Amino acid sequence: MAWRGTSPDGELKQPGTYTGYQPSHVSDDGVLVGSASNGPLDEGGVPVIWRFTR
């Protein structure tokens, strides 16, 4: 779930075929960065960028 302020604003789209993914940082312009993996996320993964669009 992505949030804008204190309100839910929608779901993050699954990046490709990766089954696990999580955001870790967000910028002022609505860009979220995180990682995705087909294994445990605490063992690493590939970088992912989500951009907020309406």
Automatic annotation (TrEMBL):
Organism domain of life: Bacteria
Species, as recorded: Amycolatopsis bullii
Comp. bias regions, Polar residues: 16-25
Name this polypeptide is given: Uncharacterized protein
Region annotation Disordered: where it falls in the sequence: 1-44
